Hints:
The protein is about 30% helix and about 25% strand.
Amino acid sequence: xxxxxxxxxxxxxxxxxxxxxxxxxxxxxxxxxxxIEGRRVSFSLLFARPNDPFIRSVVKAAEAAIRxxxxxxVEIEGRIAVTxxxxxxxxxxxxxxxxENIIAIASGKGGxxxxxxxxNLAVALAxxxxxxGLLDADVFGPSQPRMFRIEDARPSLEAVxxxxxxxxxxxxGVKVLSIGFFVDPDNAVVWRGAMAGNALKQLxxxxxxxxxxxxxxxxxxxxxxxxxxxxxxxxxxxxxVVSTPQEVALADARKAISMFRGExxxxxxxxxxxxxxxxxxxxxxxxxYYIFGKGGGERLAAELDIPxxxxxxxxxxxCESGDRGTPAALQxxxxxxxxxxxxxxxxxxxxxxxxxxxxxxxRTKTGRM
Length: 369
């Protein structure tokens, strides 16, 4: 049979985009680059963001529609085109106007080493020459004051352009603010979500953060209204999700990723960090013992089509350095220090890629149909 563009367009009207309920043509998601050579057809589908959760299902449905309504012999060689709107800019009327990148470090459950990863990533980025701030947003279990050996810090007010701002504590080249500075460390924090959210808003909006290349947020574990508050307050560049290789932890990590990808939040996932990937005893540095399972993070990253940014081994020195307030990233000559420096390099690379996607006039091609 003879193929022509209208046949392809007619078939694509049978496919609806779940996000709007409109068919692909009506929604303006079919580019005008339809090409036909014999039985071979190529075209582009346009999506508003590169992490759209419906990309795979829509592409498969489009392919099936063409073979159903046009011909089963059609060879489809189309590609997905992603058109991304300009990144929301922090201006003088919004929080953190001088911050280039805002990255949240999150986890689906507690106990996977999220705060350890956040602290070491901050130190590694600072060691690489970047200006770094860290907000300890884990309201009910703040641990950054101990990890940075600044438990006794009591931030003071600083006059800046006619305003009184909270001066962050600084150590290892990182500016740090935490709820832990303002509460009794021996008593539990018993706050409703709104109160916790307001406290974090104050640390963000009234903190004297200044100009930063990276502003990291150590998020509370799980999924809660605090997460909603933070993503509604800030234009977050992306999220790093931390998990162990254990199936229970991976199941919760999957939920966290789903939350950030959902319509209410819709924040890009920069990638996954697999913590406690294997155990390496100090006396046998060449040995690896996969006590929480092997390759779980790799499988989850591949399944959800996100980068695996790094695998962090269990080494006794990581725990000891955190308790001492001297993050492992301060020693780049060690295995763990080098691992966190490599993680920082991956974060910088993927952040740059993300920012490149947000160029106002850029349209990128990703993935084959």
